[in-house]
Fold this sequence. Notes:
By secondary structure, the protein is of the alpha+beta class.
Amino acid sequence: MRFNYNLYKSLxxxxxxxxxxxxxxNAGIKQGGYAEDMFSRMYDWIFSEATSLEDVFEKYYxxxxxxxxxxxxxxxxxxxxxxxxxxxxxxxxxNYTIIDFDELSCNDGGFIHLVFENGMDEPYQMxxxxxxxxxxxxx
Length: 139
């Protein structure tokens, strides 16, 4: 699940155990070729400057807020419905966490539209595939 809270800044639920190798393997990528390059860059783009919100909350903001939910509501001005949905997805697995990432951290702006736009009519849209990969679910 992804929520764009600011222009080119997003929160996304991911599995914190996910490595690039696991990401590529779960995507069914064979070594060499365009797909490996594209999915490697996609992984780097998402995780190169991402920060774990729970770590940031615990380290810097915990005394200022009533809890993590209050932090998401006030610091990121998320609607309650989005907070509920993110926390619900996060609760599915103890290894899920919420990261904050800057979509402009990669010079290849095409990834933003390729990965996170829901306009494709294919049965398995790129967005759904990538979200499932980030959550280490089967695709």
